[in-house]
Amino acid sequence: MRWPRRAAIGALVTVDTIEIQRVVDIEDDNWWYRERRGIVARELRRIGVPGQAVDIGAAGGGNTRVLMEHGWQAVAIDSAPAAVDLCLAQGIVAYLGDARFLPLPSATYDLALALNVLEHVDDDRAAAAEIARVLRPGGTALVAVPCDMQLWSAHDVALGRVRRYARADLAGVLEGAGLRVERLWNWNVLLRPLVRWRRHRARYCEDMADAPPVVNELLSLVSAVERRLPVRSWPGVTLFARAYRPD
User: Which residues cross the membrane (predicted)?
Assistant: First the structure.
């Protein structure tokens, strides 16, 4: 089945074109995007044999490229035309689509990424149901969301988020869609106190994505140290889930 690259589907997540371009400009070197891509790469190695994948909320396609580099046949979906254009310019197959109404056939994909998508969706259960719909039986979903409403700040409002998630909330949304959660873990546990202080000291401040080079490398080092510590069940800044569609 051939799908139009510019399906006429109402956009749900409004992302400013300048912000998308900013992400593209910094994500190859920035510690946060680099470390998140590392998480994706490690999960891909755990999955093993590559197959068909969809990256929902792909933005500039950084995670889609990780999929492709690991041998996956990947499709990018985003609700922002600018994001779709950026993906297409890089040779990524990309479609304009709403997370609640993915322009994709059912039971087709072995893997679905939805990284920092659900928190922007009013009806996150509908988006989770779409993830389950497009996955083949046995297919894997890798989801990331911001963790804990105690960290809610003007930063979340500026990014267009609707909520942050507790572990039970995310598990409930995924399981309500018919997925089975294999694992839940927190990320940026060690940096949580700094993030909380920084985001609440003013009405709005830029995220640490804009850190100077020395600070960028220091934050990357902290993240590397965290990977070696048994802290993934502790409160963090981001919550990850790996789930699958039952046979």
Answer: none
